[in-house]
Amino acid sequence: MRDAQFLGGEPTSANRFLFEVDGVEIGVFREVSGLQVTAELEEYAEGGENGYVHRLPGRLRWPNLVFRRGLTQSDALFAWVNRTAGEGFAAASNRLVRCTGAVTVLSDRQARLRAWEFDGVFAVRWVGPQFDVDSDRTLEEELEVAHNGFRSKSAAGAQT
């Protein structure tokens, strides 16, 4: 375990991630990607200064989050999508309701280790399982959500 990462004295588990929206559990996913932020750079060339160009922070950009999991019998995901977008994935609708979402890393014992809260969450894409009788692969679904930024929170709830 030389390369193990520790969070609060416990090795982190990278196999279960809980997705919640406005406090309602949407489900546990095996993979979450897109947890990053990038600052655009503004360059300013000052007159008379030829040695360098000033580089200033610009707008922050967050990619969409992509969740993957095996197919479940829960209807929580589609209940949320239908409640927030009116007619399913009608993200362009003026009836769109943006929510607060959270992704929480769960330990092997289902303890909450760390969470990230997302502002203005709404679903933009869902991909269902691929059916093939000649394949023994697991049936999976994928959800993509857009958001307007995030905050990191420890298990104790302190924002970082």
UniProtKB/TrEMBL annotation:
NCBIfam families listed in its UniProt record: conserved hypothetical phage tail region protein
Membrane-traversing stretches: none
One matching Pfam family: Phage_T4_gp19
Secretion signal span: none
Gene Ontology molecular-function annotations: structural molecule activity
Protein name: Phage tail protein
